[in-house]
Amino acid sequence: MRLIALGWFCAAAAAAQPGFQLPRPAADPRTMFREYLIQRSVTALERSAARRRQAIREGRVGDYGRAVREALAASLGEMRFGTAAGLEARLVSRHDRPGYRVENVLFQSLPGWLVNASVYLPRAEEFPPPWRAVVMPVGHSGKFGEDEQIPAQVLARSGYVAVTFDPPMFGEKRAGNDHFRDGARGYLTGETPQRLFVLDALRTLDYLSTRADVDLTRGAGMSGLSGGGLTAIYAAVLDGRVRWVAPSCFGTLETEHPVRNGYALCPEPLHFGVYRDGLDVAALLTALAPRPLLMMAGRDDAVLKAEWMSRLAGEVAEAYRAAGATDRFRFFLDRSGHAYTVAQALEFVEWLDRWTGAPPRPGRERLRREMLELAPRAVLECRPDGSETLFSLANRQAEGRAATRLGRPVRDAVAELAGLPPNRQTPVPAHRAAPAFELWGQQLQELLLTPEPGIELPATWIGIGKRAGAVLYFDDRGRWTDLRSGGPLGAMIPLFPREASARHLLTVDLRGWGDTAPAPAPYEVVSWGAPDRWFAYLSAALGDPVFAMRIRDGLAALAWLRTRPAVDPARILVGGHGGGALVALHVAAAAPDVEGVFARDFPASFAALVRAPDYTWSQDLFFPRVLRHYDLPGLAASLRVPVLLVNPLDARKQPLAEARARMLYGGATAPAGVALHAALEESGVREALVEWVRKRR
Questions:
Q1: CB atoms within 10 A of CB 452
Q2: For position 625, which CATH number holds?
Q3: How many CA within 13 A on the CB side of residue 374?
Q4: Domain-embedded: residue 55
Q5: Which of 21, 113, 674, 676 has its CA 20 to 30 Å from the CA of residue 240?
Q6: Mind listing the pLDDT tens digit for each residue in 575-588?
Q7: What's the longest Cα–Cα distance across the chain?
């Protein structure tokens, strides 16, 4: 077997030794995890498509739509809409503009969470009220842009009220509302920011219901560009008041985007279980049948490609045919890029006129871009106070979760969140090994463990030639980091001098770490793109988070270790660094018969990742729904084995002061004891780890 090239599998210090060999992986470790997650996502989406197509073939489109609506409502959580109660609407300003008027209004969709609505009104002398209305959620932009102002003006100058408002992170709702950083915190609390996006749109309908100049007796329309179009679809599925829907450049069959192309979406459309539960875009659009639906796309859209949108349109058209509503679906492919153009707005107006029974209005079709203005920002400003943000709401949710946890045993919660089988037994993974290399009486061997098809975990095994206990170690920096160059792992075993307390060692790269760290994908050149985000969001959509997969990887490594003839299965210590330390603590909870568990340089709590204004930990550590059940101090306190915690870190990976660490873990009184050391230098970390390990039996 030849020596495999460095940089993706082995530390240079080890690989430089003559005769040292490595097992050949079945696939490139740099792409292994990405290909695995793509395949699982495609399988889930194809399963959803099969259910949808079967319902269409059997003429059950209505039943299918009701099931999708129920699943979506359950996925997003409680949303109160359909009443004007609690809006507390306040007029901010009025402005007369060329061919239309605008009123700026603030109202609440949740207590303290403000919608900064700009209401575009027709001229009453040309179009006597009451008017039909269209809600126009904004996507990844602010309401001040051309793609937002121009369509709203077209609608107002055609006799319809149009309402735009900023989504979190854009326009007037910037600070504390970063989709990618503040929105992702919701995974930990079991909430999704998508609920807020959709609720803002639905509460806008509630606001419109209070206006005497608006006619909602036959419902309203909803339309938007990109993420705003997706919000419109969600809102229409949930609320029958939305009678006419016209999303623009909003999505495709997800197998193409964001799965196969690796696009770095934000977390809100990838809320927990959305792929598992069959709530992909095609399913949501099918659930709208037989309501009139106008799909719009741009021929030159660089991301949401026209051929993808056309395939999606073909799927939806089939559903409308099965529902007996062929004439209620239309696909308009514009000569544009990723934009909401005048041509699209006029197409939507014609669509609305057809279904609302509006009389012909000569001259409207002659509206051109140069006849419309881009109003100054001051014309549309509402100046919300910004007291409630994604960040502040996540904080309050974290506090609420701490006060209302379910009280079930932590071990049971870990088993559920990690997706363990009902019997909680982890099969022994298959493995392949390179020839052993002789050290000072020990044998060092490189392995590949296969916990499931498509996943190979590089591992390093050091056997000491006699029956003894073992150390199992996980490190988010790579399995050799604490082993190479006289690191603490070698001192724990120890390598030399040999002692009666010597142990075997297995250090493993869990998926996505060390030699299996994903190679960058093209869309990760953008500021919001990062491998940890794509993996975290996509796996959450599957209902099987990366962190859960790593817990199962850790348990598989433990199962393999217990089968080694020279290993005393009652004397296995589990430990780790950083994210690997969190995995080790969860492995100890799921496998309470380990001898003990130790953690170094790890996030002190999941709640800190929600509550801190900034964080530097990878988002693939954001264990979805964990704060509904426990946090790390409670997890440590629940363990039935000795626990060592060294250098708990804050959200920015800075050591907690001793007093702060003691306050946080003061209640962690596990039956076998919790030893805590905070704010140690590296030499102190090494000393604490080695001393604790050597004291075990």
A1: 15
A2: 3.40.50.1820
A3: 8
A4: no
A5: 113
A6: 999 999 999 999 99
A7: 96
